[in-house]
Automatic annotation (TrEMBL):
Designated name of the protein: Fatty-acid-CoA ligase
Domain AMP-dependent synthetase/ligase: 4-315
Family as reported in the entry's similarity comment: Belongs to the ATP-dependent AMP-binding enzyme family.
Residue stretches of biased makeup (Polar residues): 474-485
The organism's taxonomic lineage, starting at the top: Bacteria, Bacillati, Actinomycetota, Actinomycetes, Mycobacteriales
SUPFAM superfamilies linked to this entry: Acetyl-CoA synthetase-like
Gene Ontology molecular function, alphabetical: adenylyltransferase activity; ligase activity
This protein's record includes keyword Transport: no
Keywords linked to the UniProt accession: Ligase
Domain of life: Bacteria
Region Disordered, annotated ranges: 466-485
Amino acid sequence: MLHGAVPVPIPPREALKTTERFMTRLGPLLRHHRVLICTPAEHDEIRAAASTDCQISRFTALAEAGDEQFGRATAQQLADTATADWPLCTLHDDAYVQYTSGSTAAPRGVVITYRNLLSNMRAMAVGSQFQHGDVMGSWLPLHHDMGLVGSLFAALFNSVSAVFTTPHRFLYDPLGFLRLLTSSGATHTFMPNFALEWLINAYHRRGADIEGIDLHKMRRLIIASEPVHAEGMRRFAATFAGVGLAPTALGSGYGLAEATVAVSMSAPNTGFRTETHAAAEVVTGGRVLPGYEVRIDAAPGARAGTIKLRGDSVAAKAYVGGKKLDALDEEGFCDTHDLGFLVDDEIVILGRQDEVFIVHGENRFPYDIEFIIRGESEQHRTKVACFGVNERVVVVLESPLDSIIDKAEADRLRCQVVAATGLQLDELITVRRGAIPTTTSGKLKRRAVAQAYRDGTLPRLATHAWTADPDSAPKTTRSSLEGAH
């Protein structure tokens, strides 16, 4: 950065679990960018995969300030650069490149300018309502926009203290994170919806062991990054009310990398709100933050449509397929590829365009079904992916212990889904642990699971399929146990 380079946060190898996934994720970066700095352990294989146009260097070489080249300068020259020689940045200059999670498509390198970053920091300051003495707490990865901007940069911009732990530590000991919030006196934290379930399940697994947890100081616990489930929010509020979590502290938000991070947030001291859409309860994304213009592109007479954004926080460029391209339409709007609607000054997110499926002529989303299956299955921490194929509703359930769901359990789960959503499952498939892919931020890759289903490459352990009787009563027509493909 001292010589005008633009940083690109990337996930560590540990977040991608296998060398193959790590190299697949690095592929677009190796095409787009001129220098990649890595650990010594990663150096040789990354160098072998890189094109001749991308220089691969070690962190240790930079720290040692030697003669190794970093772009147009050596490490020693970078170390010797005087403050007066640092380049002056303008608001139009690129600050960093944030890659999207890639849950529904290949990751895009969103180019965030200093204007985007400053605008979003100001907007988040309004939504977060930081005060002197506040503390931000986070376990979110810093290669992800919610961790980097929503947590680290937000604390720096608002001059408040911050405490961090790792995603791995949170997943290993969720309640330990709440104890960290307690010991640090944290007042603000942000996390995705799945974290609520991890915390609730950890609470029940530990026999309601809440020693050392006190959330009286927590004023802004915002759930965002993925669809927020109303019943999950209520369960979390009820579970931790006894340790001081105020109902008004638990709120919701909406954001995306293309808008730097935050677009909307529950108003302070109000808690989360819900709306009804198509007979379903949905949590709003909160009040639209200052500086945004929101447009809903809906069919005539329809309430919901594609959400489009315009404003100083919205990125104008992105790296796609090896090229830096315009990311806005001719009117300056960004297509979020999310579906939703506005209610007064709040935005309601229904889901991703790429994840909607049609049943009997109606648009349906997978999130409620997945929430129900996760809550009803014996392995509460399992991954569940739902999708539609030719108006059939398919659920793929990952079994942590490679255990088999029998016919009676499958029928019970199906009845729970029908009772809660009115939708009948057509197929329930149990797969081996690790078969459902996720992004580096933990989001399900539902399209990848659906494609594996169509290709016949799911590592199935068991399959249960149903048809409906003429009177609509569920009837099991096929159950089978299968080895891994």
